[in-house]
Design a protein that fits this description.
The complex is a heterodimer of chains A (305) and B (408). With 305 residues, chain A is an all-alpha fold. Chain A has one domain. In chain A, helix 6 runs parallel beside helix 13. Chain A is globular and about 55 Å long. The termini of chain A are far apart. By secondary structure, chain B is α+β, with helices and mostly antiparallel strands. Chain B is globular and about 70 Å long. The model of chain B has no long low-confidence stretch (mean pLDDT 88). The chains are: A mainly alpha (305), B alpha+beta (408). At the A-B interface, helix 6, helix 10 and helix 13 of A face strand 1, helix 4, helix 5, helix 7 and helix 14 of B.
Chain lengths: 305, 408
């Protein structure tokens, strides 16, 4: 029972939704300021979701309606669960379970899978094109991300989040810094932010994968994206930066919060200083130099750097 | 194994472009294997309208051919009228024409640069370019009274003088514009990601340019050295110093660089025009009383390329024939050569690289049988279809409309 309450409210679904929307407001506001615009008011992401929730849901003809409508929920549930596991690990590092790192990695792949599922089931040429791009992108970014995740595993000697949290690799080693850089690029692709917003590509595909979605199902996707913007960087912070520690007083918790803000800022800065890559360029980049850098980081960690 | 060809529609309403147009991209996977261009959604019959208006009104009409080239069409048109009717134009008016034309070129190229950034997914470039464009538009408003559609031209001169106070304001704007222009040039020239997206993409060879008779920056990016401002001097272009900007490879990168280079040349031309306006006072209008019978041609190098107007006068106060050819009419067909073989991701920027302006280009479209050239759907039948649909819609909505069984 306790677990269900935790999943639905804190630190699961509700908490992640609110935190995700606030993070997406920060993203939009900072983007606007970088582009010399004024930017949205604080509550704008909440207004947007509310508006989408009261809009009509259009379902394309000749589609598998249950699959079409349930695809968004897969990603939403996966992200909420991943966020809950991460936050439980940070709140009570002693009670984590063995292998939860693997579970979180698996859960964080669900949003992409739900987008691919929704895209193909909506039977629109632009959506299936976006879906196939998303599929290629998943293949491209998962490899360097998993390789880079080996660095904290090697340093902590464990695949348990509680143990990894106690060894913040970025502060203590060269391999940690390199692995964080790799993971940051892979995370940019996972969040489908510029230069990796290839599946949505407004001007090419007219928001591609999401083109047939409207109303509440679209709101689910938008919420998932916002939650991923919060959960993804938090996962990086847990893996490489020791997370946000609540057991050692408010000072270290604030420092953790600032580190998180820094990560988000870097992601927003990248998104505003680059054009979109082509899918072949993105795959070449992620499988080539980025994966090589990840392997180098693992080698350095192996030698104790 | 033969791959399946799917059609990716770009249009009739698409986030890529703000006007109605229809590009059918035939794709295999991500690769474009064919392109159909369908235009004709915006035909307004400007040429015929013009024949029913007197010369003063005609200028205002052609100004509305295009919102962005809203002074290019009038300059070409007044030149055609002046040639047809053998009219005098005072020196000062020529400088003012070039001044307004070049201000328009700067804001048009900034608009395109912003859109190009947007199409590449680089929204910061979009917002920045349009922010600096605002300052140019503000100056246009201060000098002419409007951000676009300046209403400055008339046969025999211009309507409004540019006094000394406005000259200093324009100079100040040019000073503030120089650092953003440098910034854009350096960003595009040095950013590795922009290079990766634009180099070697949508390349047009000089032969292809000549085959399609493409004009303007599209041609100059491929190394075809044409510019009506130099080849057929008009307004003040023969009296000031400037260079034609040329690049050689003809890809998207070169098209961006040509347009950025032209903005620098425009600044140069405007500065010279301003100093001549300060030192050479004089009338701005020759007050012509009549247009003699005759024919005239007017060219102007619009931001998108050569715009061409032909006027035939019978000595009355209105043209008996007015012919317009806008630059996009020559440039849009090159998309076919440029886009086939590229990917969909690149297709968007390639289709936009000629800086298309569809409503300038529109011609009456007819549905022809490709083998016999026989007209399959006539204008009369289209009208009948439209009326049938209106009647059907009315019956659906339960409206009692007027009786639609007219003879057609």
């Amino acid at each position: 029972m306790n677990v269900i309450v935790q999943f639905l409210f804190f630190p699961g679904l509700l908490f992640t939704v609110v935190a995700g929307l606030v993070t997406s407001w920060y993203d939009r506001k900072l983007t606007a300021r970088l582009q010399m615009r004024k930017g949205p008011p604080f509550w704008q992401p909440f207004y947007d979701v509310r508006k989408l929730m009261i809009k009509e849901t259009c379902v394309p003809e000749r589609t598998a309606i249950w699959l079409f409508l349930s695809a968004p929920l897969v990603g939403l549930a996966g992200t909420a669960l991943a966020s809950m596991i991460l936050w439980r690990a940070m709140l009570e590092p002693a009670v984590t379970f063995a292998g939860d790192l693997i579970v979180v990695m698996y859960l964080l792949a669900l949003p992409s899978l739900s987008v691919i599922l929704g895209a193909f089931v909506s039977r629109n040429p632009l959506a299936s094109l976006g879906g196939s791009r998303e599929m290629k992108l998943v293949l491209a970014y998962e490899l360097p991300f998993v390789v880079a995740a080996c660095v904290p595993i090697l340093r902590a000697g464990s695949i348990q989040l509680g143990e990894i949290l106690s060894v913040p690799v970025v502060g203590s080693s060269l391999s940690g810094v390199l692995a964080l850089l790799v993971a940051l690029i892979a995370m940019q692709a996972r969040l489908t932010r510029v230069p990796f917003d290839i599946p949505e590509a407004e001007c090419e595909l007219g928001s591609g994968v999401l083109i047939e979605y409207s109303g509440p199902p679209l709101a689910m996707y938008k919420l998932t994206q916002a939650m991923m913007l919060f959960t993804g960087p938090m996962f990086l912070l847990v893996l490489y930066g020791g997370g946000i520690s609540f057991s050692q007083g408010w000072l270290s918790a604030t420092a953790g919060g600032l580190k998180f803000l820094g990560l988000i800022t870097v992601i927003v800065l990248i998104r505003n200083t680059a054009p979109r890559l082509r899918i072949d360029q993105a795959m070449r980049l992620l499988w080539g130099p980025v994966t090589l850098a990840a392997l180098l980081a693992v080698a350095l960690a192996w030698w104790g750097w | 194994m033969a791959k399946k060809t799917t059609i990716i529609p770009v249009g009739p309403y698409h986030p890529l472009q703000e006007e109605p147009e229809f590009f059918k991209l035939y794709v295999e996977g991500e690769k474009v294997v064919g392109l159909d261009i369908e235009l004709g959604y915006n035909h307004r019959g400007v040429e015929k309208l013009s024949e029913g208006k007197d010369y003063e009104e005609t200028i205002f009409l052609v100004e509305r051919v295009c919102g962005i080239c809203s002074t290019s069409h009038p300059i070409a048109c007044v030149q055609a009228i002046e040639e047809a009717g053998d009219l005098e134009v005072p020196q000062r008016a020529l400088y003012i024409r070039s001044l307004i034309g070049e201000l328009e070129r700067i804001h048009s190229h900034l608009l395109w640069l912003g859109l190009a950034g947007h199409f590449l997914g680089f929204n910061t470039v979009w917002m920045w370019a349009w922010r600096y464009r605002e300052e140019v538009l503000n100056i246009c408003e201060q000098v002419t009274g409007n951000r676009n559609h300046y209403g400055m031209l008339k046969p025999g001169g211009v309507r409004r003088d540019v006094p000394a106070t406005e000259i200093s304001a324009i100079r100040k704007m040019l000073d503030t514009l120089s650092s953003p222009l440098d910034l854009f040039r350096d960003t595009v020239a040095e950013d590795p990601l922009i290079q990766a997206r634009t180099r070697g993409i949508g390349t047009l060879t000089p032969q292809q340019i000549r085959k399609f008779a493409a004009v303007g920056p599209t041609a100059r990016a491929s190394g075809v050295d044409i510019d009506v401002r130099r080849d057929h001097p008009h307004a003040a272009y023969g009296m000031v110093e400037w260079d034609v900007v040329l690049e050689s490879r003809g890809d998207i990168f070169d098209k961006i660089m040509v347009r950025i280079g032209e903005m620098f040349q425009s600044v140069r031309i405007i500065r010279q025009c301003l100093s001549r306006l300060e030192t050479e006072p004089g009338p701005i209008d020759s007050h012509p009383k009549e247009v003699k019978p005759g024919e005239g041609i007017g060219h102007y190098e619009a931001p998108r390329g050569e715009v061409f107007h032909y006027i035939r006068s019978d000595g009355s106060n209105r043209p008996v024939r007015h012919k317009i050819r806008a630059p996009s009419y020559m440039n849009v067909p090159t998309n076919r050569e440029a886009v086939i073989g590229e990917t969909i991701a690149d297709a968007t920027i390639i289709l936009a690289a000629v800086d298309p302006c569809y409503c300038c280009t529109e011609r009456m479209a007819a549905v022809l049988d490709p083998e016999t050239d026989r007209v399959l759907i006539s204008g009369k039948e289209l009208l009948q279809r439209s009326r049938r649909k209106t009647a059907w819609l009315r019956s659906q909505l339960g409206h009692e409309g007027p009786d639609l069984k007219w003879d057609c």
